[in-house]
Amino acid sequence: MTAEMSPINRFTESKSAELQQRTHTAVRDMLKRHSGLIGPEIVDLISQREGKKAAEHFISARLGGLANDNSSERPGLVLYVKPEVKDEIVEKRKERGEIIGDAQIVEINPNLFSIIFSDIRYTESVGAVLFYKVAGEQDISHMILDFDKIVRIEGYKNELWQNRDYNWNGTTKQIAGN
Length: 178
Prior knowledge:
Blueprint: H1 13-32, H2 40-63, E1 77-81, H3 83-95, E2 105-109, E3 112-117, E4 121-124, E5 128-135, E6 138-146, E7 150-155, E8 160-162
Antiparallel strand pairs: 1-3, 1-7, 2-3, 4-5, 5-6, 7-8
Helix pairs in contact: 1-2
């Protein structure tokens, strides 16, 4: 089964709009202190431009893996991994008596698979991401994956963790000059 990836704007729209508005307001307020030197039309133009630039920078950083959400707010996520990592996860779960059904694994393209976990949360740690279930007042560790095994994590509340070494489609990023 193949599928399309989630729309990118889902992970950037609300946060970038909020950042744009905050930047616009901060720049406008700062420039208004010099109202004798700068007219109100120019203040509005500059503050709008700076707000737009801040939002564009955030979107670029967000999709490049430089503005990740360090943890999910509620259970439920889609984990995007390379084919060999998908096989490793399936095998580990089989060993523990847990089966991932076909409906939970989707081939996005030959380089990328998604695995849906409706009851799992994530939190970033040093060099790895911990996936866990919440059982009552206790967290139960589910699995730990090194950063290099994860392409992307999409939480059900629009959390995003993007590996900065991979493109959105699962291919390895090329470093300029290579």
